[in-house]
Design goal:
Distance between the termini: 51 Å
Number of strands: 26
Shape: globular
Structural class: alpha+beta
Strand content: 15-25%
Strand order of the largest sheet: 3-4-1-11-8-9-10
Radius of gyration: 27 Å
Number of helices: 16
Low-confidence stretches: none
Helix content: 25-40%
Mean pLDDT: 96
Length: 755
Amino acid sequence: MAEHDRRFESVNVEVPRLESILKATGQAKYTDDLRLPNMAYAAIVRSPYSRARVLSIDVSEAEKVPGYLGCLMPEEAPSLYFNCSGNPPSPLLMADETVFTREPKVLGDRIMCVAAETEQAARDAADAVRVEYEVLTPYLDVAAALREGAEPLQPHISSDNVIQYRDVSQGDRKAGEAASDIILEDRFVTPHMQHVTIELTSCLCDFSDGRHLTVYSTSQTVFQERRIMAEILGLKEKDVRFSKPMVGGGFGARQQIHAQHVAALMSRKLGRPINLSYTREEDLYSVVRHGSDVDLRVGAARDGMLQLFDTTFRLNGGPYTTHTPTVVAAAARKLQYKVPNYFFHGVSVFTNHITGGAFRGYGNSQLTFGREILMDRLAAELNMDPVELRLKNQVQVGEYFPCASIPVSSNRIEMCAKRCREIQAEIDAKAPLIDNDELCQAWGIAFCCHGSGPSNKDGLSGAIVMLNDDATIQLLVGSADIGQGSETMECQIAAECLGIPLSSIQITAADTLTTPYNTGTFGSSQTFICGNAVALACDDLKRKVLEQLKIIYSDCRVEEKDCRYCISGSENLEMSFQEAARKIMFDIKGGVMIGAGTYKAAACPNPFSVCFVKAEYHKKLNAIRLLDVIQVVDVGTPINRMTVEGQLEGGIAQGVGYALYERMEINPRSRRTLSSDLLHYRIPQMDDMPQTYVDMVDSYDPYGPLGAKSVGELATVPVAPAIVNAVRYASGQEINSLPLCDKFIILPSRGKERA
């Protein structure tokens, strides 16, 4: 039987997440719920300016606040540079940030810290600190930062505010131009977008003995953060423990150090555990999706075959390197169309805007936005169906993405498009498209792909399975479940591999003291990277069980099939996995059964998505409304169909916000953020969401655990360009930038207005 025809028991089914009852009943413990004896609270004094110099700091009024315990001044913190990114070490991750600064380069930069007996007292004390600044002119956009005469923001890295150039190419530009009957080009601009995790950033640090540090935090990358903290504090990694409690969302925002170093230093100074939790305003300006400014040229022959793809991809990185060069590098690797002449010129730029970091999509969202709009324009110029144009140019199994080193291993995007059209037909049968004097309705589409794990194949994960005598399993993994359901899916993989019920598995995850190494929860890697490690650990356990049974029944033949053990010879027995476990544990020739697996990414299989959007344009109001969004994906074997559906629906919601109105706004006069809370930074609410339809096609990837690929980031990437294409057809207006609220009135998708 071929692998893609395999029937599963514990995967490719709908399973409620293991922690769902705890969350629904309020019993789940998040970082800010944790309490340690003698715990105190800290708050950071931050720069209110995007660029300034600190002239003086006066804490005399703060010292009068009841409950005040002490302060941590800039000179009390290590001054070495570090990069806060939760990626493994890389030449791309230049060190340019310090714990505190007297030369703030961004709104919210850390100046100092105060501590008190209560959280409110700590915030009152921080507000009472008087800091005198010399305010400097900030460079808030790429053009200003690159202007001749602009001062370098990180002179030890760049004299012209360019963090790094990134060039990836194949073919010949002039040959591509000559082979193209049509060349379209334009500039596309996307805004800075905030993650808006429901749980605020928080940490609890105990460094009270000055030798051993324990950190509980909202983290996606506990092992990378342990390494960074050990470097900052001059500790061995064995003396630093990071443990992730329940996390209420990440989307990339927690793929970095936030304030753990500040809390640790304050804990050491006071000799007490320290809780340091952000306000919503602090969270909003802590890290954002990079704003982009992208020039694109696409050329095609008259038959629709692409001949040229040429882009200059500029990212506004803010004042610190963090992830920016790796985001640019990742964007260069995700063109799913066959293009013989491909040219990618990436530019990472220092500015004084809010620091850009990891965000669901990791460069793919910004580049796919303009690309898919140009593909629709190209289809119109060629008088081709936009779906057929894309399918005609789609890279197939065994073929290579531009500049890729590994061929595509699975691709069912044609089935995705077919299923989208089926759902589209059902919708239009019930509510045909309208075009009259009042409004015009239209469909727009977008294709996209992503990777499974980091595109540079950095992904590495270990897993341990320990067999109990009743055949239950203790599963240990280093991956961090930040709300996406990875712990449930890892347990499902173990249950499937061992042939036991899901209820027989207990998982412990993301604790550097007790679980094996994992690169981190980023790059849509948990199901693929950690899932493969779990599968290998289960294989190792099964092998050891078989070998131990051969020792016990040394004069018999012992064979395993489908997790049942057949013993023949002097004895003739058939054992279940449960019976074998008990026999091994208590037999005189028994042993302790522990399976271990390590997976280093051998590939980065591409999941694929097709998104259709139905929108309407109100001609007299110049207003738009989203009606329906369809997204169908090829994610290989969906380990948990319920979770995949949730990822798709959540990704659509983020894409809707990105397209319509989400943006971190900075007042051009005061140069301070206007987006200080969820009244001034709007995310989609129930009435804003169109009707959504999501589905998965049958697929199987040979590299994936049980055939699985990723879904987390893929889900949000095609939504914004599909919305723009729908609005373009409905309104007749060309669109080059987000959010759409700059150009149109946005009407709610549900409620009385639609009725």
